[in-house]
Please model this.
Amino acid sequence: MVDKKKIITKNDHEEASTYGAFLIGKIIKQNQNPIANIALSGGKTPILMFEKLSKLTNLNWTKVNIFLVDERYISLDNENSNFNMINKHLLNNIDIPSENIKNINYLNDINEAVKEYKNKIVKEFSLSKEKPNPVFDLIHLGIGDDGHTASIFNPQKVNNEELIDITQGEQFDRITFTYKILNHAKNILFLATGDKKKKIVKEILKNNKRFAAANVENKGNTYFLLDTNAATLIE
Ligand code: 6PG
Model:
């Protein structure tokens, strides 16, 4: 299989965020289908990229669905919620119809929330026995210091028979895409910046399967968008 991993290193966090916003915009514009389906992750690293993405003027957000890659199982107005961060730095600042925003609802029962979110995906992608895997135009992922991505902390402990699974984060229960979704995307964009990430970035690019981010074996393009600090240890 052609290795479609592309490492893009920018001078600093600001330049990486600018390029990431450009790349997401480019992928959205390249979409030939009636609507582009993208999925975004939480964390602190993508905040500036989302703010820059919201300022791109030539994007028609009515032709874009935005899903969440994962969520902490807390109310959406909690500052720790991924939706809360993405809403604040992107969704609130773009002209996107509410029906195009596919967030993970905080319901009484986490299993109900999983079922509801899975149904949103099945419906949007018209999944069936013949077509079991959604193909996202773009999935943005972060890389935790411990090598987690999405909310997959232990790559051995996620049920890849399902589209969505429940995992346990440090503070909160999590709902996350599994590799069943991650590994079928047309484009994966990892964004990792800062000196703190240099060791884990090296391990991921060495394909160290102990770490969840290294188990994303995407059939499409996989971009590793780094700054020079995060890329320090890459040969
Ligand atoms: C989450 C994110 C997670 C994140 C990484 C990196 O819910 O925490 O989806 O996968 O992308 O933890 O986070 P930072 O960008 O804050 O380092």
Observations:
- The mean pLDDT is 96.
- The pocket of 6-phosphogluconic acid is lined by residues 41-45, 69-70, 82, 142, 144, 148-151 (CB under 6 Å).
